[in-house]
Specification:
Blueprint: H1 4-8, H2 12-37, H3 42-57, H4 65-73, H5 87-106, H6 109-138, H7 150-155, H8 157-175, H9 180-191
Length: about 200
């Protein structure tokens, strides 16, 4: 997790741009879930993220946050309605976009920092399930509940990559100018590996 003190050093603009870049890495998770479940609307989320980038590039651009938050409500999956893992990262993506829009509307830094936590949380939960499945396959005769250590999650290459990416984006945002070029650079940095934060190919 990036140093919380470093996050507080970001201006509202920088933190918004940093958060939007993180969501670029989460959006493919929602798309994959939406295609598999035939629920939701990836285009809506893509459009909302594009509107945020447009607002960052052109501060005079009007964005109706309340209307966008209402639209978002309609495409948030209920985890009880789906019986496969993909619903959880899809929900995290919606929560992250909600935090982004709400944080911009309220000019609230704390709400915006939720995006960083949600991105890490998505990776953490995915790894917890994956490592538990690996343990179960290795020890099929063990009936005891499988306990996954937090240290194992933190040490996994996927979590290491998540943390390194967050740090890299944060370091760039800290000294970045508040303009369109910075938006483009952050976005391309976030997508440079061609994968979502769960390692799904974009």
């Amino acid at each position: 997790m990036p140093n919380p003190e470093k996050l507080t050093q970001l201006t509202l603009w920088q933190l918004t741009a940093y958060s939007a870049a993180l969501i670029e890495r989460m959006l493919p998770n929602y798309q994959m879930f939406s295609e598999a479940s035939e629920f939701g609307d990836t285009k809506l989320l893509r459009n909302q993220l594009d509107l945020v980038w447009q607002r960052l590039a052109q501060p005079q651009f009007k964005l109706n946050f309340s209307a966008q938050l209402e639209k978002l409500e309609e495409v948030i999956p209920n985890v009880e309605d789906f019986d496969f893992f993909g619903v959880y990262p899809a929900l995290d993506t919606c929560m992250a976009i909600g935090s982004l829009l709400q944080g911009m509307q309220d000019k609230d830094l704390e709400t915006l920092t939720n995006v960083s936590l949600l991105s890490k949380g998505s990776v953490s939960y995915y790894l917890e399930l994956m490592l538990a499945e690996e343990q179960a396959q290795q020890n099929p005769d063990v009936n005891d509940e499988i306990i996954i250590q937090q240290a194992d999650i933190e040490a996994h290459p996927l979590m290491q990559w998540e943390m390194e990416t967050q740090q890299e984006l944060l370091a760039f945002a800290l000294t970045a100018k508040e303009n369109k070029e910075t938006c483009q650079q952050l976005k391309s940095m976030a997508l440079s590996e061609g994968m979502s934060n769960l390692g799904i190919e974009i």
